[in-house]
Amino acid sequence: MTSVGDQEANFATCQRLAVEAKEAGCCMLFLPECCSFIGRNQQETVSVGEPLNGPAMARFQDLARSTGVWLSLGGFQETGPDPDHIYNTHVILDADGALVTSYRKVHLFNVEVHNGPVLMEARSTAPGTQLIACDSPAGRLGLTVCYDLRFPEVYQRLAFEHGAEIMLVPSAFTKATGEAHWELLLRARAVETQCFVIAAAQAGKHNEKRESYGHALIIDPWGDIIGKLDDPHATGIAVADLDFAKMAKIRERMPIKNHREQGKTCLGWK
């Protein structure tokens, strides 16, 4: 999707996608980072921050109930620790609209993009402090957001310590970094953890200052792409069935988790 600085318009898009997911027989819909709002500046973004029991989240809870589809809201502007900061929070809602869990993005995007914008997320966003995994009808989910993708230890801990089977990477990757690294890093995270990766993505121009790469992907534990949009910049959903028997065979034939523990023992790592 292409979020803009209009919460009503963005929710209408999310609503349409949720109905499409229900009609396609999906048990869960994964929406990208900033699915509810992308502003023109950090002040706008902070101004829309709400607690997770506020009216903006209540609408998404109603949407989950009305469709009977679990929702992953990839990055919601949650009220932060002070008036100048929000949390970038990944929220999981069940089919009854209950809040299952939430993850506050740990790694903030403070980067001068080559041939692109300077984005300093920490100026308006406070970091989280915990890794989160939870069970769902799709499988056991490991929650991350966007820039977390560049820190492989996050995904290894989610897989090998928290038992995650599906890594969620909802994102608003910039066009320049997406062209260079998006698919490469997603497939690497799938292969090294032997997990599925579901990467919902913002796409296209949000305003005169910001553009996202798009290319939402679903990847299996062997690194194969099993779901994507025909038009990588379009608004829509990619649908896939997750083959957990294949995942089990991959893990049995190449027991990375066991080998990782052996390697830690040999090297004296904790």
TrEMBL record:
InterPro entries per UniProt: C-N_Hydrolase, C-N_Hydrolase_sf, Nit1/2_C-N_Hydrolase
CN hydrolase domain segment(s): 1-244
Signal peptide boundaries: none
UniProt entry keywords in alphabetical sequence: Hydrolase
Record's keyword annotation contains GTP-binding: no
Protein name: G10646 protein
Phylogenetic lineage: Eukaryota, Viridiplantae, Chlorophyta, core chlorophytes, Trebouxiophyceae
Gene from which the chain derives: g10646
